[in-house]
Amino acid sequence: MTAGAGRPGPPGTSRRPRALLVPAGVAALAAGVFAYVGTVDPNAPGHYPPCPFLFITGWYCPGCGTLRTMHALAHGDLAGALGLNPLAVATIPFLLFWWGRWAVRSWQGRPVRTTLAHPAYVWGFLVLVIVYWVVRNLPFGRFLAP
């Protein structure tokens, strides 16, 4: 056994870079996917499979238009992205906030707990997604369809 094994080193020395490996990996994966979707146009047929729910039912799911939304955002077209899937666009700042909070807390060595994941918020978001799903398929909600 090596000397010092099992004992932590001075606070904040070698653990910090390792603590950021997973958040950095998630960021790299997300950036890679975003770059790929920004490069390979989802509007051109044959690059991506169709939405299974849309294919089977003919109705839009909450995620329909998200690939084209990300493509529009990659090209700086916020208005076009909002026209394709406003829920996806509205979700991005929250995802960035939670990723940033996760990365900072990992760097600080603090637990990555959040009160934002309270069951009431999770259920509220689920209800919002279901309402969005239904409304975008109704005649008066066509403005939400991609």
UniProtKB/TrEMBL annotation:
This is Membrane protein. The chain crosses the membrane at residues 87-104, 116-135. Keywords: Membrane, Transmembrane, Transmembrane helix. InterPro entries: DUF2752 (IPR021215).
